[in-house]
Design a protein that fits this description.
alpha/beta; five-stranded mixed beta sheet; three-stranded antiparallel beta sheet; 52% helix
């Protein structure tokens, strides 16, 4: 099947994000919304009307109007140039081929718009949406349909179950739905939603999951450098919500011929935590088989200081100067790791001496 789509290049221009996004949204709706053959007379405005909210949330009113009209123009031009597209099979092949061909331009324009918009999503909601996109990416949420490039059509009920949990009520769905367009998700007010392939790119998912705090990012990078230097390997980097507070979890591992030592660093430099936070984090780290956990937070409640030893070393940063904070935390962690390492070496020496004495 020969598909001439060179004419589409002007719609997927790299220099006009509004035009490109309007075309792409229209193309995805046309690809997913109907699998049957079209009649000769088609109401394109009816087909695309559900995209208006998504475009308005992403682009603002005036730019959204231009994007919508561009999408409408693209769809009309597509059927004029490809009358065979009235047949569902041909139309699906044509649109998937176009998405793959112009994907680099689509991705560039998507990122240009979305990078700013995701910052408007509350942090706890943003992290939940990021985890939802991860589950789609790795096939943990059933897909109704999927393109070759990865754009996915799913049930809103499945989306709500992932983001909200099992106890779904309509009010919670409405609260979450208002933020989905800011993450690039199309038609969130309908029972079936479209997740574009760029929204499932690792860079976009990490953009949603990361804590928007420069010093937390700098600290994570500094600790990663320190621990890899002394032989540890980063095996997991994720963000989790614990008792309503967002934490960055870094799990490192060091393996010898006989043993494996797993270390977890949990951080939020703005958090003030309670006993419940600590107990939940301890449970999470235990389930991940971590031998030692460092919890780095701004402050702890008095009851936390009186807790019995639970395998967590808490580092309070208080209102310390953020520039000296990184070195302070690195020194505290390194000191404790060295203490443990030295103890391990002494135990080895003791066993060696005990064996020598038995031989003598």
């Amino acid at each position: 099947m020969q598909l001439n789509i060179e004419w589409m290049r002007d719609y997927f221009t790299r220099d006009d994000p509004v035009k490109c996004l309007g075309t792409y949204v229209a193309m995805l709706v046309l690809r997913f919304e109907r699998k049957s053959n079209y009649e000769r007379i088609i109401d394109f405005e009816d087909i695309l009307s559900g995209t208006k909210l998504t475009l308005r949330e992403l682009l603002g009113p005036s730019a959204a109007a231009r994007a919508y009209l561009t999408g409408l123009e693209f769809v009309n031009e597509l059927f004029r140039r490809h009358p065979e597209a009235l047949q569902a099979k041909y139309r699906i092949h044509l649109l998937e081929y176009a998405e793959s061909t112009f994907y680099s331009s689509i991705l560039k324009n998507f990122n240009n718009i979305i990078t700013y918009e995701v910052q408007k999503i509350p942090e706890d909601v943003r992290v939940k949406i990021g985890r939802f996109l991860q589950e789609i990416k790795y096939g943990k949420i059933p897909a109704i349909d999927r393109t070759c490039s990865g754009s996915t059509y799913i049930s809103k009920v499945d989306a709500a179950s992932s983001i909200i949990g099992k106890n779904i009520v309509s009010q919670n769905i409405q609260e979450i739905s208002q933020y989905l367009p800011k993450a690039g998700i199309i038609k969130p007010e309908y029972m079936r939603i479209i997740v574009p392939a760029p929204a499932l790119e690792e860079t976009h998912i990490r953009r949603l999951l990361r804590i928007l705090d420069k010093y937390s990012e700098d600290l994570a990078e500094g600790l990663h450098h320190l621990l890899t230097t002394i032989g540890y390997v980063l095996t997991n980097d994720s963000v989790q919500i614990v008792e309503g507070t967002t934490f960055r979890f870094l799990i490192f591992e060091r393996q010898t011929q006989r043993t494996r030592f797993r270390l977890c660093i949990v951080m939020n430099l703005e958090a003030s935590i309670t006993r419940k936070h600590v107990e939940t984090i301890a449970t999470i780290c235990t389930s991940n088989k971590c031998c030692l956990t460092f919890l780095i937070v701004k402050s702890v409640s008095p009851e936390v200081r009186n807790l019995p030893t639970i395998g967590i070393s808490i580092i309070e940063t208080g209102d310390a100067d953020k520039r000296s904070l990184i070195n302070y935390v690195k020194n505290e962690i390194l000191k404790e790791i060295l203490d443990i390492s030295c103890l391990s070496k002494l135990q080895d020496v003791y066993k060696l001496l005990d064996n020598i004495m038995q031989v003598i």
